C-alpha cells in the first residue's frame, strides 16, 4: 500500500485528444458506469488510475473496476487525518477483493506542517491545508499517468452539476473519467447492497460525505449532502475538482 507510480511522458493535450475526449463524453453519456470503465481501461491501460476516498460512491466504483480489471491501479490520499472507519473500510475491501491500494501521502508530516505554517492549519486556512495534504500529493502521483477516474456525481452539489463522464482535466492536464456522474444516490446504494460491498458505517449515521476528521461533521435533516464538509466556511471543494466558478478547495468525492 505504498506510494507508487510509473514515469511516463506527459500526455499531449492537443486538438486530436480534445476531440477524442469530447466524442467519448458524447458517446458514453448515460452509459453504464462499467462500460465507461471498460472504455477507459482499453484506451489507457496501466496509464489509468482510479481514485478512492472509501466513500460509498468510490467503494461501488472500486467493485466495478475490479470486475473490469482485477489489476487496475487504485489509490487513495492518506492525509494522516482520516477516520479510523475509513482505514477499516480500506482493509475490508482489500481483504474481500485482494486489492493492493496505493497509498499516496503528503510531502510533510503533520508536525512538519505545523512547524512551517502553524498548528491546525485546517482551522485557519483550510484551502492551504487541502493544497498541502491533498492537491500537491495528487499532482505528484498523477504525473505517472495519462488518465484518472473519480466518483464525483452531478447530483452531489451545484459545483458538480455539469460534470461529464469523460472530460479533459485542465488542472492536472490529463483525461478524467467520472463514470458515476449521471447516477443517483439510490442507484449506488442499490448496487452496494446487491453486491454486498463493504462500505463505511459512518454513512449510516448521517455522514454522507466523509473527509478528514477536523473538517467533517454530521449532516442535519434537510441539509445538502456536503454540508458537513468544512462546516462554518464558504468552502465546498478541496481543490481536486475545481468548479466552473473557479473555487479551489480537495476531496476525491
From TrEMBL:
It comes from Melghirimyces thermohalophilus. Catalyzes the formation of sulfite from adenosine 5'-phosphosulfate (APS) using thioredoxin as an electron donor. Residues 220-253 are annotated as: Disordered. Its main location: cytoplasm. Its cofactor is [4Fe-4S] cluster. Its EC number is 1.8.4.10. Transmembrane segments: none annotated. CDD domains: PAPS_reductase. GO terms for biological process: cysteine biosynthetic process; hydrogen sulfide biosynthetic process; sulfate assimilation, phosphoadenylyl sulfate reduction by phosphoadenylyl-sulfate reductase (thioredoxin). PANTHER family: PHOSPHOADENOSINE PHOSPHOSULFATE REDUCTASE. It catalyses: [thioredoxin]-disulfide + sulfite + AMP + 2 H(+) = adenosine 5'-phosphosulfate + [thioredoxin]-dithiol. Pathway: Sulfur metabolism; hydrogen sulfide biosynthesis; sulfite from sulfate. It is an enzyme of class 1 (oxidoreductase). Residues 231-246 have a biased composition (Polar residues). One of its GO terms (molecular function) is metal ion binding. InterPro entries: APS_reductase (IPR011798), PAPS/APS_Rdtase (IPR004511), PAPS_reduct_dom (IPR002500), Rossmann-like_a/b/a_fold (IPR014729). Residues 48-217 form the Phosphoadenosine phosphosulphate reductase domain. HAMAP family: CysH (MF_00063). GO terms for cellular component: cytoplasm. The active site is at 238 (nucleophile). Binds 1 [4Fe-4S] cluster per subunit. Keywords: Cytoplasm, Iron, Iron-sulfur, Metal-binding, Oxidoreductase. [4Fe-4S] cluster binds at residues 129-130, 212, 215. It is found in: Cytoplasm. This is Adenosine 5'-phosphosulfate reductase. Belongs to the PAPS reductase family. CysH subfamily.
Amino acid at each position: 500500500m505504498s506510494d507508487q507510480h510509473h514515469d511516463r511522458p506527459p500526455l499531449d493535450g492537443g486538438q486530436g485528444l480534445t476531440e477524442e475526449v469530447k466524442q467519448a463524453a458524447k458517446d458514453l453519456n448515460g452509459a453504464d458506469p462499467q462500460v465507461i470503465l471498460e472504455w477507459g481501461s482499453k484506451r489507457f491501460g496501466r496509464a489509468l488510475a482510479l481514485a478512492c476516498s472509501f466513500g460509498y460512491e468510490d467503494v461501488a466504483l472500486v467493485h466495478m473496476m475490479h470486475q473490469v480489471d482485477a489489476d487496475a491501479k487504485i489509490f487513495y490520499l492518506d492525509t494522516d487525518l482520516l477516520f479510523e472507519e475509513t482505514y477499516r473500510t480500506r482493509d475490508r475491501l482489500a481483504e474481500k477483493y485482494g486489492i493492493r491500494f496505493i497509498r499516496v501521502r503528503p510531502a510533510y508530516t503533520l508536525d512538519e506542517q505545523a512547524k512551517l505554517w502553524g498548528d491546525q492549519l485546517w482551522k485557519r486556512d483550510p484551502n492551504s491545508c487541502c493544497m498541502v495534504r491533498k492537491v500537491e500529493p495528487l499532482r505528484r502521483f498523477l504525473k505517472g499517468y495519462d488518465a484518472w477516474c473519480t466518483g464525483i456525481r452531478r447530483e452531489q452539489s451545484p459545483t458538480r452539476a455539469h460534470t461529464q463522464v469523460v472530460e479533459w482535466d485542465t488542472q492536472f492536464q490529463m483525461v478524467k473519467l467520472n463514470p458515476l456522474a449521471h447516477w443517483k444516490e439510490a442507484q449506488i446504494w442499490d448496487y452496494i447492497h446487491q453486491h454486498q460491498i463493504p462500505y463505511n458505517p459512518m454513512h449510516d449515521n448521517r455522514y454522507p460525505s466523509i473527509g478528514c476528521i477536523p473538517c467533517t461533521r454530521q449532516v442535519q435533516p434537510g441539509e445538502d449532502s456536503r454540508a458537513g464538509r468544512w462546516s462554518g466556511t464558504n468552502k465546498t471543494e478541496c481543490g481536486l475538482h475545481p468548479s466552473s466558478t473557479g473555487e479551489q478547495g480537495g476531496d476525491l468525492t
